[in-house]
Amino acid sequence: MATHVEGRKMFLAGEWVDGTQWIDVIDPQDGALIDRVPAATKEDMEACIRKAQEGARIAARMPVVDRMRIIGKAADYISSNTEHYARTIAKESSKTIREARKEVGRAVETLRLSAEEARRITGETIPFDQSPGGIGKVGYYRRFPLGIIGAITPFNDPLNLVAHKVGPAIASGNAIIVKPATVTPLSALLLAQAFSHAGLPEKILSVITGRGGEIGDVLVEHPAVRMISFTGGAETGIEIIKKAGLKKVGMELGSNSPVIVLKDADLEEAVASSVSGAFWAAGQNCLGVQRVYIEDRVFDSFKQQFIEQTERYIVGDKQSELTDMGPLITENEAKRVEGLVQEALDKGATLETGGERDGAFYPPTVLSDVPGDCTLAAEEIFGPVVLLYSVKNLDEAIEQANAVDYGLHAGIFTKNLNHAHRAIEELEVGGVMINDSSDFRIDAMPFGGVKQSGLGREGVKFAIQEMTDTKVICFKLA
After folding, report:
1. Burial zone of 322 (CB within 10 Å; 0-12 exposed, 13-18 middle, 19+ buried)
2. Which pLDDT score, from 0 to 100, does residue 8 have?
3. What stretch(es) of the chain map to CATH 3.40.309.10?
4. What does the pLDDT look like over 401-432, one tens digit per residue?
């Protein structure tokens, strides 16, 4: 059946512009052509950065009340068009329509938080006379925008993770250039549409569609771009750091998040939370539950309940209200996950359920007895696969949880406050969720990790801090 293609434009410094080459946007569920977007060139990105330099000056002079009004109006526009935004997310990404609606709601919340935090970019007075050389001086510090923010965003949350960069950047008086994931550009363009509708002055925001190999290095390496905010894989993040030069970088690089279930846990709650945390967005989630360490006395019961709930998951049409999980973002990604699972099985792991790929679909899959030298045990799966381990006690669980190069979030289920606090102190992660899975986040909290899980923190207030510099002002009194 023929597919109608609208042929979208990209948002270059406030103007909707065509390209000379195009990128097809494909529905991963059935391979259908959804739309086409321009494949920007190196020259397009260079022109965008030149215009953004003027946009940065415009943004810095914009009164806070105007920043708040524009961001709030963009949030209202998205909220009033929720279904259109959700359908777009569910077409171009892996998310089901129910997951997509939740993402739209979170993006609205992210922008409204950004508008609120714009009024809270404050400084403090400094008692200079605490030092003998400071007697007779008064002053303070303020936060000032960096200038141009370069944002590179992933496919798994194609609207809200863009909002997490655009909202704080505009709130703090910066210009921002977004390079969205090549496979999911439409949601980012819809965000630009909301800001255009809200009256954001031209040259402050750009959403440039294209291939990373063509335009990514230009954005990363250009000296006028004062910060790169990247969400994606660790390997790419490390390459960006090498190329960026002397500028700020914010890196959210994923994880292979652990959950610990102790014998005193509420097993029903632990199972339900961990299953949901493992298979949201087909497991393509940096916070997704990947490794579960269960105290041996409750291991068999937990495993049985976990498998039963996993097997009740409905996998299928993303646009159906009944579907729990859709496909992976591409068939190649499903093949990659399939290969990782097969490697583990070849080395002695036990397949408890799942494991049979169908095109881009890979079912919720549970493994046990996974050897430590398997890729699945040490690296991020980014797919719907969970590893269950039996452990003797909390000591062993913490030791195994920390025995990887990642550390974004962890969860622990226990009724014992001492055990909870030990986990808080000893788990090498950026966030510990007690009696919840690793897959918990609100958009106002500081978000980020340690080790190969990243640098810096997102979350609106904390992203604003990353996107501004402090300036000290000191008056010598007569």
Report:
1. exposed
2. 81
3. 258-446
4. 999 999 999 999 999 999 999 999 999 999 99
Beta bridge partners of 407: 450
Query: In terms of C-beta density within 10 A (0-12 exposed, 13-18 middle, 19 or more buried), how is residue 477 classed?
Result: exposed
What the block records as the tokens of 390 is: 């039996």
All CATH 3.40.605.10 domain ranges in the chain, comma separated = 10-253+453-473
Residue at token pair 């022109």:
47
The domain made up of 258-446 is a member of CATH 3.40.309.10: yes
10 Å CB burial of residue 439 (0-12, 13-18, 19+) is: buried
Which amino acid type is present at position 27?
D
Q: Quote the mean pLDDT of the chain.
A: 96
At 363, is the pLDDT very low, low, confident or very high (cuts 50, 70, 90)?
very high
Beta strand pairing call for 291-295 and 258-261: parallel
pLDDT in the model for residue 430: 97
Domain 10-253+453-473 class, CATH top level: alpha beta
Tokens of 171: 């709130």
Paired strand residues for 206: 177
Residue 7 is predicted with a pLDDT of 57
200: DSSP letter: P
Residues labelled catalytic: 252, 286
Say if residue 85's pLDDT is above 80: yes
